[in-house]
Amino acid sequence: MTKTLQGKVALVTGASKGIGAAIALKLAAEGAAVAVNYASGKDGADAVVAKITAAGGKAVAVHGNLAEPDDAAKLVGETVKALGKIDVLVNNAGVYEMLPLDAITPAHFHHQFNVNVLGLLLVTQAAARHFNDGGSIVNISSGASTLAMPNTAVYGATKASVDLITGVLAKELGPRRIRVNAVNPGMVVTEGVRAAGYDSGEMRKQIEAITPLGRVGEADEIAAVVAFLASDAASYVTGETLHVTGGLK
After folding, report:
1. C-alpha distances in angstroms, 12 versus 22, 27, 72, 141, 226?
2. What's the pLDDT tens digit per position in 94-143?
3. N or C end of the chain: smaller count of CB under 10 Å?
4. 190 found inside a domain
C-alpha cells in the first residue's frame, strides 16, 4: 500500500510526548521524514526518533523552546538543514493552565499566549519561508476554543485565536498552495493530563458524561486526523477547524 506522505518532510512542534509524539510517529509511518521538536524533553524526543528509525523511517530531534521568540527560526533552520525543505508543519506545542477569573495574573496570561499564539505564529512564519511548492500546515487547537468551560478564559482564548489564525493564514497562503487547517481535540489522556490529575478526577467524569461517544480520546485518534489533513487526500481542504471531540460541542 502506498504511503500517503512518502518523500515528504514534516516538522512537528512539541513532539517529545503525548499528542505530538503520536503525530510524529503517524506521519513517519506514512513515509514522511520527521523533525521531532522538543523544548525540555530531549529524552522523550530521542525515544520518538529511535522508534521511527527502528521502523525504517527517518527522523531527527530538534530543540526549540517556543516561549523564546528567537527559537522559532532556529528550529526551522535546523530542520531544513537536516531534512530539506518542509512539506508539512504541525503546530502542536502548547501549554495549558486552568484558573478561575479571580486567580488570573499577567504571568498566567503571557505564558500561555507566548507559546500557544505567538510561538505558533513565529514558527509558521519561519517555516513558510522554507516550504516546498505547496504543502500543509495543521494547527492543534482545542475543543476548549468553543466550549467556553469554566476556568478556561485564558487557555480557551489562546485556542480561539488559533482557530482564527487558521482561517486567516489559509487565505494568505492559499495562493502558494499551502493549506492551513486546525484539529481541535477533546480531552485526551496524555502525560500532561495525568500530571495535572485530570485523568482520574471529576473533570474527566464530567467530560465523559456530556460526550456523545461517552469516553475521552486517544492520542492516536488525533494523529490519524492530522495525517489525513497533511496528505493529498485533503487536497481541497483548507481553513477548516475539525473538532475531534467524540461529538462534544
Report:
1. 10, 9, 12, 14, 11
2. 999 999 999 999 999 999 999 999 999 999 999 999 999 999 999 999 99
3. N
4. yes
Question: Does 249 reside within a domain?
Answer: no
Query: The CATH number of the domain where 150 resides is what?
Result: 3.40.50.720
Residues 18-42 pLDDT 10s: 999 999 999 999 999 999 999 999 9
pTM: 0.97
The domain tally of the chain equals 1
230 lies in a domain?
yes
User: pLDDT-derived band of residue 49, with 50, 70 and 90 as boundaries?
Assistant: very high
The residues that are catalytic are 155
Q: Cell digits for 32?
A: 514522511
What is the DSSP secondary-structure string of the chain? ---TTTT-EEEETT-SSHHHHHHHHHHHHTT-EEEEEESS-HHHHHHHHHHHHHTT--EEEEE--TTSTTHHHHHHHHHHHHH-SEEEEEE---------GGG--HHHHHHHHIIIIIIHHHHHHHHHTTEEEEEEEEEE--THHHH--TT-HHHHHHHHHHHHHHHHHHHHHGGGTEEEEEEEE--B--HHHHHTT-SSSHHHHHHHHH-TTSS-B-HHHHHHHHHHHHSGGGTT--S-EEEESTT--
Domain residues for 127? 9-244
59-63 vs 9-12, strand pairing mode: unpaired
